[in-house]
Amino acid sequence: MRMTETLGRAAVVLGSLMFAAAPLAASAANFAGTWAFTGTTVMRSATFVTSPVCLFRQMGDRLAGSCKGPNAIGSADGMVNGNAFVFQWHTIATSGPSKGRTGTATFKGTWNADGVVRGSVTSTSAPGTVGVLTGQKTG
Q1: How far apart are CA 48 and CA 56, in angstroms?
Q2: Is the residue at 132 inside a domain?
Q3: pLDDT computed for residue 44 by the predictor
């Protein structure tokens, strides 16, 4: 065997070993699809519930889409890191005394092995208040 063939084969073997030994990058969970969320916040002894249904597209670790709740609609965008996520719902109120007003709700959570997302929700309409978030993928 000639020296160049030996070196070529050694390089292939070494490259294969390096690839096999390299740690696999943590991939983002697949958040694409339809999600039903419930956020419950207590403020001044009153309980407020937001329950948007969101449709997400996922490009790598980025989320984009829209959400619609009983009283608001709007675009959504965020990030995924493994099973954790954060996204902002840019709301426009569609009914009630706040009709036409805008705001941003931020949802943070982790998709757990039982299929349920658990985390927190905050909103520009209630600064300093943190609510409890749950959600499930419905489609």
Answers
A1: 24
A2: yes
A3: 82
CATH (domain of 125) = 2.40.128.120
Angle formed at CA 120 by CA 94 and CA 47, multiple of 5 degrees: 60
49-76 pLDDT, tens per residue? 999 999 999 999 999 999 999 999 999 9
Q: Give a yes or no: residue 3 inside a domain.
A: no
pTM: 0.78
**Is residue 132 within 8 Å of 42, Cβ to Cβ?**
no
What is the amino acid identity at position 118?
Answer: R
